[in-house]
Here is the input.
Amino acid sequence: MRAVIQDRYGSPDVIELGELPEPVAAEGEVLIEVRAASLNGSDRENLAGSPFYARLGGLRRPRRPVPGSDVAGVVVAVGGTVTEFAPGDEVFGELAGYRGGLAEYVATPPRLLARKPPGLSFTDAAAIPQAGCIAFRATQGVKGGDAVLVNGAGGAGGALVIGLAKHLGAEVTAVDRADKAAYLRQVGADETIAFEDEDWADRRGRYDRVVDLVGHRSPYRVQRALRPGGSYLMVGGHARILLAVLVAGPTAGVRTRKRVRVLAVPQSRTDLEAVTALIVAGVVTPVIDRVYPLAEASAAFARLAAGDNRGKVVVEVSPSR
Ligand SMILES: NC(=O)c1ccc[n+]([C@@H]2O[C@H](COP(=O)([O-])OP(=O)(O)OC[C@H]3O[C@@H](n4cnc5c(N)ncnc54)[C@H](OP(=O)(O)O)[C@@H]3O)[C@@H](O)[C@H]2O)c1
Here is the structure.
């Protein structure tokens, strides 16, 4: 089968299209014919092998050479003991281990997969899983009138965080590069901050919720931007800061009833179904930046690595049999 192969960490040049043996559905797995796969910030990290958690799947080189965690496709075979899906079912979801999706076929346990709603294209469905589940968890508890700040809002996941926060009635401030401001307003931000011009953490006592997709400030610094009772959720960012928030977060704002913590987003079919229901109902819409054919996966990664994408980059895979 045709597959994108990444045999080492580095720049998008390490990405090549090659041939690999077609996987088989082992006991407890389904074999999916992939129709589309989308890229996230985590794919950019998994390409570079940085931060350190991007090397959990192989210290020196990726143990599983095929990148890509979010897929949509058709079940073509099921292994023994799988009863919930059958050949012909259209499914989508995040792959366990965050790899394997950029290929014509992938074998995976079905527990993370959901049935693709009939009205949703494979391309749109592939854009949902990781970004949708992050946005769903990151906006739990947001109330009408809350002031929400989304840091790193202009990449793969931010638009859905903004959209869900707006749906819940929040006033949303989105932070990213200055040249993404118009895009951020278009997807619903009430206010934008260019991180080159202003440090949002200097705004004392302003936010009920900060969702940080690119955390690089200490827990003591970020808590100052919160209102009493507010919460800072670190979703991604520097490994050193991740550890600092894990260790010091619980005490950083305790006197002022502020919560500073890492948001661990589980890979979850239930969350995927819940956020997809909101998308199908038209409450929020995933933003697709650009669609590439499988043969141009290296260009898709180059766009992601340069930070030129506004929303999701999707790679379409056409069936060859
Ligand atoms: N917590 C969990 O359980 C969990 C689960 C899955 C994924 N994640 C993590 O979620 C994170 C991000 O999600 P994503 O897919 O939306 O990432 P993304 O596509 O990389 O988007 C990040 C955005 O932040 C911008 N940015 C860079 N430096 C910034 C700064 N100093 N201030 C403000 N914005 C800045 C980037 O701009 P440029 O592109 O121009 O650099 C980009 O637009 C990843 O780190 C991933 O590992 C966490």
